[in-house]
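Memo to structure team: turn this sequence into structure tokens by end of day. - J.P.
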Amino acid sequence: MKKPSMWLAAVCAAVGLSAAANAKAAETVRFAELNWESGSLITEMLRYIVEKGYGLPTETLPGTTVTLESALAKNDIQVIGEEWAGRSPVWINAEAKGQVKGLGDIVKGATEGWWVPAYVIHGDPAKGIKPLAPDLHSVTDLAKYKDVFRDPESPDKGRFLNSPTGWTSEVVNGQKLKAYGLNDTFTNFRAGSGAALDAEISSAVQRGKPVLFYYWSPTPLLGRYDFVQLQEPPFDAQAWNTLTDANNPNPRPTRSLASRLSIGVSQPFEQAHPDITGFFAKVDLPIDPLNQALAGMSQKHQDPRTVAVELLRSHPEWLKAWLPADVAGKVQGTL
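Reply from structure team:
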């Protein structure tokens, strides 16, 4: 009787191990579905490598920046492919509690701010455009140029194109309008989506019209057109805190926090997958080829997944730098 019992125990143990292995293999990694070009492209690159290199299925969940950061803190999603770490109170609070972590510095030279087309300041003789705001250099100069950026729906004010509602930058920009004393002279026009913001800016540029807007890099738009970023006061950490708090009645002026793009992960995911988070920490995307890929994706209306595969195929050196040799080989074999 002992031998059958031992045999049965061994079989049960083997079945248990097999079930655990299958459960591990079937685990789905949930990524944030980011609704801006660089975010969607980077997300698809990471998903492809996780699927092909580490054998885990993935899916994406949509949401605003704030809801996705909250979901990451609860492990309802596991990865945010492009996290502007340290910008929102939700992220800062979750990071302080050890619920989330920003891995790596994935795009060097990223920036954000307020921009205008260069022809607004310098003109464009080839297109017959005269300078409309020749002395516009800083956000503090905007008050005297509100008529240049006239809002068609509120002609007595200028129009500032803000990010979509739900983005952390939308709150910051709204507070900046108050801090710079522009709340009474400019309307805070919020785009319905990242694509709508792009369309509004592109339409103005193609018609040679003045437009004042918030934007960031890496993006296709900044590589496609000639824009000038307006100067802002030097960064002040205490003033920055007043800008990220939508309820602060007295926001103070400062340029935005220096950009650090990371890959955001939940604490349980980091503990369960040190191999994948180790890869995330090594991701380094040169901004020039990234901007070129984003420009092509936008102009050709390509799917982010397609462009992600093309980028990985064109840059095998990235896989070698980010991944162990065996994992890089698996991914390369699928390309």
